[in-house]
Design a protein that fits this description.
Elements: E1 2-8, H1 13-24, E2 27-33, E3 43-47, H2 53-60, E4 65-68, H3 79-100, E5 104-108, E6 120-123, H4 136-151, E7 159-165, E8 168-169, H5 176-185, E9 191-193, E10 199-200, E11 203-204, H6 205-218, E12 228-232, E13 238-239, H7 240-250, E14 258-260, H8 262-279, H9 292-299, E15 302-304, H10 307-313, H11 321-330, H12 345-349
Parallel strand pairs: 1-2, 1-4, 2-3, 4-5, 5-7, 6-15, 7-12, 8-11, 9-14
Antiparallel strand pairs: 10-13
Bound molecules: NADPH dihydro-nicotinamide-adenine-dinucleotide phosphate and ligand LLCNDLXC.
Residues 9, 11-15, 33-35, 49-51, 69-73, 85, 89, 108, 110, 141, 165-168, 175 line the site of NADPH dihydro-nicotinamide-adenine-dinucleotide phosphate.
């Protein structure tokens, strides 16, 4: 038996998988979250807002290890919410860790802290943070990571390390596959934005979980990982549109085939986001998934080197991309196209 450890955000997509990974490895697990999304007799839930120190202290008392993987959803455009939770809330988490004598803190950061809409090819962790982040999510993930890594060097603080995953996917993800399928159902997935050759990282959730647990187990006084950030990916960059096409085909939808110029779509998304901002005092309009950030993510290269995680954490992905895509498709029976048939889907679309 190891632990006890606390997963802040343990009811979310990644957090729940992390809890399962920790239980498999015999950790004693507590979850701190706004809500309880599942039930397990082995897990103690503490419901509360991470911006409230007293609520956190109730969960952290007696714990030696904390994983912080809570964040507002990246699709939100609520500046105040991002600053309150990702920056001020993370400061509160650090303070609560100090007051409770928590030894180790593992932060879930994001590889997108260096992304500003331009190509990223095999970037290491030495690449500087984005100078002009494209949205409040990225802006506050940068501030959060700096805050946590800096705290790791103070004498009274917990030892800290940040894991930077990219494009997490897998069973129960409310974001990637459901958004993709909703777009396909509305007939919005007919076009490939740009030349369709952009290569990106998508990372299976179990690999991200492994990265977090290895980081926690390597983090100790004098370890080279203290105060550092690590990319954790599937280490198998893939064409963005090939990945999307495989997901869509696997669920019985037609993959996009026709091309549309990147600059045209990007300019349109930018104008739409300005319009939403200008009209906000009068009516609440939302660009939904059609934001400049998402258009850029769909059309640029963004893949990262995880050599440092391999060297310092002993990280090696345990689920290949091929297996991960198959497992994910199988996990969403409700999102399948109504005429889906696993035996004839190749014939339908080819
Ligand atoms: N998904 C991805 O592709 C990537 C995610 N990440 C990072 O991974 C982490 C987990 O992401 P993911 O699992 O996808 O997100 P989820 O939204 O599924 O999980 C986040 C959890 O945190 C909770 N939460 C939000 N605000 C608070 C708060 N103030 N106090 C307590 N709990 C709170 C959420 O509750 P509720 O749902 O009620 O808001 C939710 O249960 C995040 O830090 C994200 O930045 C990094 C790279 C890629
Ligand atoms: C064509 C198209 C836009 C399809 C929809 C898929 C998108 C919903 C995902 C494709 C890349 C994903 C991604 C994230 C969210 C979901 C996507 C935009 C993040 C922004 C999630 C949070 C992060 O930290 C970075 C991720 C990068 C990739």
């Amino acid at each position: 038996m190891k632990g006890p450890c606390v997963v802040i955000g343990g009811s979310g997509f990644l957090g729940h998988h992390l809890v399962e990974g920790l239980l498999l490895r015999d950790y004693v697990v507590r979850v701190f979250d706004l809500r309880q999304s599942f039930h397990d007799d082995r897990v103690t839930f503490f419901l509360g807002d991470l911006c409230e120190k007293q609520a956190l202290i109730a969960a952290l008392t007696g714990a030696t290890l904390v994983f912080h993987c809570a964040s507002p959803p990246p699709s939100s455009n609520d500046r105040n919410l991002f600053y309150r939770v990702n920056l001020l809330g993370t400061r509160t988490v650090l303070q609560a860790c100090r007051e409770c004598g928590v030894q180790n803190l593992v932060l879930t950061s994001s590889a997108s802290v260096i992304y500003e809409g331009k190509d990223i090819r095999n970037a290491s962790e030495d690449v500087p943070y984005a100078r002009t982040p494209m949205d409040y999510y990225t802006e506050t993930k940068i501030l959060q990571e700096k805050e946590v890594l800096h705290a790791g060097s103070s004498k009274d603080g917990p030892l800290t390390v940040a894991i930077r995953p990219h494009g997490i996917f897998g069973p129960r993800d409310p974001q990637l596959v459901p958004v993709l399928v909703r777009a396909a159902q509305k007939g919005q997935m007919k076009f490939i934005i740009g030349d369709g050759k952009n290569v990106v990282d998508f990372t299976y959730v179990d690999n991200v979980v492994l990265g977090h647990i290895l980081a926690a187990e390597t983090l100790e006084e004098g370890s080279p990982i203290c105060g550092k950030a690590y990319h954790v990916t599937n280490d198998e960059p893939i064409s963005f549109w090939n990945f999307m096409g495989q997901m869509l085909q696997g669920l019985g939808y037609e993959p996009p085939r026709r091309h549309i110029p990147y600059l045209l779509v990007y300019s349109f998304a930018l104008i739409l986001s300005w319009l939403c901002m200008l009209l906000r005092p009068l009516i609440h309009l939302s660009p939904g998934t059609f934001t400049p950030m998402r258009v850029a993510l769909a059309s640029t290269h963004h893949y990262y080197s995880c050599e440092n995680a391999k060297r310092d954490l002993g990280y090696k992905p345990i689920v290949s991309l091929e297996e991960a895509i198959a497992k994910t498709i199988r996990s969403y029976p409700k999102l399948r196209h109504r005429s889906y048939s696993s035996s004839n889907r190749e014939r339908i679309w080819k």
